[in-house]
Amino acid sequence: MSFSLPVTVTFFLDVISSWCWWTEPTWVELKRRYSGRVQFDWRIALMQGDSIPPSRAQAEWFYRRSGTVTRSPYRLNAGWLEPGRFEYLVPNLAAEAARDLGITDDRARLAVAEAAVRNGSEVTRWDVSIAAVAAATGLDAELLHARALTPEVEERIRASTAEFHSLKVNQRPTFLIENNIGDRAVLSGLITVEPLASIIDAMMADSAAYASFAAQFGEPPQT
């Protein structure tokens, strides 16, 4: 991995994941707290098969549980769910395609997530997901749709999903935290700031210590 900053945090998510939605305040706080000091990125990790509730009734039960755990003043909407569907490619493609058109922040994926889990919209329909992203980003809907249909965008989603599975975890959100001296931590399923911040702080401290040593003694002898 190439590091422009000493620590990188990668957020693996599916745009229709309720727990990823509940994690957004933590993501915002981390980006605020470490602005300019830590590199942040998000990648799609498609929910597939057993990761998706088989019915709206079960999804609504999960929503009541997670809403209680997070002390949410509102309940999520399971109207987006189509029982029996193996994965929800369209909303994730719409969010991912926006990157290629210059939207590298969180606006595109949050727009699709809100359409799904807050509004219960049928985000498997291209017109619904594309309209949500276009409204949030100002992108041309036809151009966005064309880009979302390209093989490159789906290949990127498949690759990031495979990377997620290579971490040997099955919960979304998952955070991969790395620094430029080789430290690596994976936190899966946790959505609060404190454990993430403590690891980031430790990795930043280690990286700074190595940089200080290198300034004093240079590279290690080769023989």
Characterise the protein shown here:
The protein has 223 residues and is of the alpha+beta class. The protein has one domain (7-217): Glutaredoxin (3-Layer(aba) Sandwich), CATH 3.40.30.10. The chain is 52% helix and 11% strand. It is built from eight helices and four strands; from the N terminus they run E-H-E-H-H-H-H-H-H-E-E-H. A four-stranded mixed sheet has the order 2-1-3-4.
Q: Report the average pLDDT across residues.
A: 95
- Categorize the overall geometry: globular
CATH topology: Glutaredoxin
Alpha-beta classification: alpha+beta
Oligomer: single chain
Strand content bin = 5-15%
Instruction: Tell me the name of the CATH class.
Output: Alpha Beta
Number of helices: 8
Poorly predicted spans: none
Q: Helicity range of the residues? A: 40-55%
Report the biggest beta sheet as strand number plus sense, adding barrel if it closes.
4 strands, mixed
